[in-house]
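Reposting from the mailing list since nobody answered there.

I have sequence plus structure tokens for a pair of proteins and want to know whether others read the tokens the same way I do. The first protein:
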Amino acid sequence: MPVIQVLSPHLADMIAAGEVVERPASVVKELVENAFDAGAKNVTVELRGGGATYIRVTDDGCGMAPEDAGVAFLRHATSKLRDEKGLESIGTMGFRGEALAAISAVSRIELTTRPRGAAEGTRMELEAGDIREMLPAGCPEGTTMIVRDLFYNTPARLKFLKSDRSEASACELAALRCALGRPELSVRLIRDGEERFFSPGDGRQDSCIYSLLGRKAASQLLLCTGENGGVRVSGYVSSPSAGRGNRREQYFFCNGRFIRSSLLQAALEQAYKNSLLVGRYPSCVLYLDLAFAQVDVNVHPAKTEVKFSDEKRVFDAVYYAALSALQGEARTAQVPLSASTKSVTAASPDKPRPVSASPVPKKDFYQSMSAETFRANGYAARPAAPARDERPQGSSLRQASAPYQTRLDLKPRASSTEVAAPAPVSTVPAPAGTPIVEKPVQNVESPAVPDHKIVGEALKTYLIVEVGEELVLIDKHAAHERMNFDRLRAQERHILSQTLLTPVTLRPSGDDAELLDQNAALLRELGFEIEPFGEADYIVRAVPAGMDVGETASALEEICEKLRRGKAQGEQEVWDEILHTVACKAAIKAGWDTQVEELEVLAEAVLSGRVKYCPHGRPVSVTVTRRDLDKLFKRIV
């Protein structure tokens, strides 16, 4: 008896069906995509019992003639591919000719279809891939496919299905992804007699997202557009404050097809670096449009995995589009401007005028000018910051350097160790091989700061600022940490350092000592000056400018841990993680007494929109409106 047997065509079809039809959601996806390829404008999906017992997909597409319907369920029978040249530029959702054959092999199917303009349609019944009945029938134009008793003839597959609720949710998600990918088409899903979603099909991405994902999700999204070398990106990404605990809300579409791509995930999340809380993920609905020949969808029968001919171009397109959307986000504190502020910042409602553009008064002008006229003409926009030698005694503010005015060192009063003046910046070029990171050009003009009044502090942690009819509460540690981080990043690989009058001695563990020796050059770039001191001790003679000396030991311990974990990361990622530590250690802490001048700098940085999130992604401010307070005190209902 021979050992090797040739399987029957029916058994081969059942085995092959496992690659295409994993669960009822696979059936929904394939049938909806076929409806799209048929030119349908309206598609309706109906489910019962989680989809395993009943799936119905109705479309108003082109329909099928009787001769086409008879062969549509054969393996590798398709109307979307003619020869091998077609594989080089695939523009349809389906093309393999496997979906209908795979579905029919493991289910019972009822098909009714009628071509546009035909007098009558065709009705077919199939069981396990065999045609049981085929006859003319009256039906509307388009196609209706009913799939019953999925996996009835493959018990091994049937027992691995999850509960009806889980399978129905997967079917709903599959249909939703198809609908999101084609905003110009209307898709309706009915689950156990209840309509779950309906997309309008008006071609607008925003209305499609609103109807499918809901009002709350849509309100947290930022418009995202960009183009790079023929790769066009459009859609929406989430605000950093709306980070999620997983990647389930990331929807990527390539030429209308939903895809899973680690490349696109990495590009998106790289744009959120230093803005999103650790352990949180952005959500998005992003549409990539590029030439069909530049993407290969013939990777897996499910067609959700693709390969790009130029991955770097695609990565850059997504990365810079998302980064541009984040940089254009409105400032955290949305506050109305008072009449006096408007008169200062704009000569007229139609022609804004920056504060610095105030006209130069004529000689003796101030002697005959009233206070009201002075303010009305914009000459009292805001008093200029005092010179360094004119600041009050004890103030630790340093002159802001253009163009980015958060390069300030707000040193807390709690520091007990004296430090000498910062050492000059080294002019030694970066080591060979150091990657050059291109940064977006900062706007030279400083953002306008609305009129405000510092009310005080709460719990020595939160700064309270009154702006118009609102109160803005600012986390002073988070805001200062972000300012420090931006200042450190702006200094590239040459961080200012301060020499200690009293050096700090520490004794690291064996692994940490080895890391300190191996990364001595990196630590010097960060502003640390460390050298061995005896057999097991090290002495620290300089630390990054602005860092509290009492945090030296803990900062170096955290840096060593990040160097240890960062072996699998890129150099820039490790550098940013280390800057997080330095920025945090240099920031003022909750519970510390803070000078009024320091609080003013924090308030201006936040209200102007230059500081929105701490490097770990936490928001730095929240806004309480007068209406909120009135409701709390029952002044209004």
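The second protein, same order (residues first, tokens after):
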Amino acid sequence: MKFNEIISSVVCIILAFGFSAKAQKNDKPNVIVVLADDLGTGDISHYRRLHSNKIILETPHIDQLANEGMIFTNAHSPAALCATSRYAIMTGNSCYRSKEGWGVWGGYSKSVIQDEQLTLGRLMKQANYNTAFFGKWHIGTSFPRKDNSEVSFISNRQEKKNPRVPIDITKILYGPKQLGFDYSLSLPAGIQNMPYAIYENHEWLKMRDNSTIRVIDKEYMDNLGTDHFNKPGYGDSNWNPSEIGPILANKAVDYIAKNAHNEEPFFMYYCSQAVHTPHDPPTEINGIKIKGTTPSKHLDMVKELDEQVGMLINELKQQGIYENTVIIFTSDNGGLGSDIVPESYKSGHQSSDLYRGSKNSPYEGGHRVPFIVVWPNKVKKNTSSNEPIIGLDIMATLAGITKQKIKENVAQDSHNLVPVLKDKKRAKTRDVFFVQGGANKEFIINDKGWKLIIQVNKKSMKFEDSKPIALFNLNDNVTEVENKNYINNPDYQNKVSELYTKYKETIRSEIFTGNHKL
């Protein structure tokens, strides 16, 4: 070997050692929470293999997480719909504690989170993390009025009938920044609703240099070839949902690279746009072809999501910080049904795996979700737990990882999963838990596998105004076959009464009181 080559090699070794040493300097790990959109357990090949050998689409990067950490096989989203789930995950409080118990759906809706309420961002700021949010927000965003930039536009849903409301969508007045995130790249209502634009640190990020604000209508979206459209509204004149995933993933990779070796560890909450409609996959992402490579546009989006996860993993490894990073992967609700993605089901794919129902349903397929935790050298590889957990457990778990105590009356429904993750003896989660249904206003109580579905009055929408409509014993009927629905069986009326009483007592005593402060 030549002298210059020897010197170069020695320099590289020294730099690599210094680089690695700096990467491991923090005693607190970096943390990335990945929240997929409308992803069921059957959409992940690792989970699907637990019940079937028929795999239509492989998800190698998400499977890699499963092999390198712990999967939960009895994990649930807080609700069977996204906006309600996102509030619960962000705050650690069940949806019914919110002043908007059934969710914030409009891109212009006022934030449902209180000014001083604990959020994931605020929790991690308390632990001296640099915090970042990427993707779908969907818990309320304030924009200025056109006639007064200092005053927030107050949504009264007139934008549903008139897309030309007096609102300035070029900047955000209240959003991720106010809730504890140092950096944000946000979609106020995802890719499916107005405003059809993306924001970096609350400023409109133009899709092209020549972008202007215009009304995005069905004709515009039809010309793009998208398969679903919600309603017309303001957006970027170059709006294209197929470009959003690559933007999010590449910006997230840049963020990791920029913050990998800072004094402070980082926390990233990455809320992918995939696999929500419209299903408009990119031609490629990170050099991998996506569009048209699977049996359906929906599965193209699942493949895109997997590649997004792969990009995050690869960058962590490139920066030498993968071993010092906790990764939590889950979804906001169950997978899409055959009525939404018929081509996927025709191919043999089952988004809900073996479970009954899908997104928006009170049955298990509506709220059973993948949940994977990777924590190198802390969580054993290729392990699993059947303990019941909910997405809102993320809050208390992050507090446990960062060794913080959450005050009483804050994040009241979040359970610290660290003892389970570390396989502590007799570590448990909960026996009784609550999950919210979908647009039909159902509520679910699960007590050691006995599941009561409760119908809330659709007109009053008050949780107390309700009645039981189904009873299943998931211990021997996890698929919820209807001939084992015991709601009208005289032998099980005591169980119905017992569970319904628990539900009413909880709702009456724990309804939102406005005191959920830091």
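Reply #1 (J.P.):
I read it the same way you do. Residues 6-24, 511-518 have pLDDT under 50 and may be disordered.
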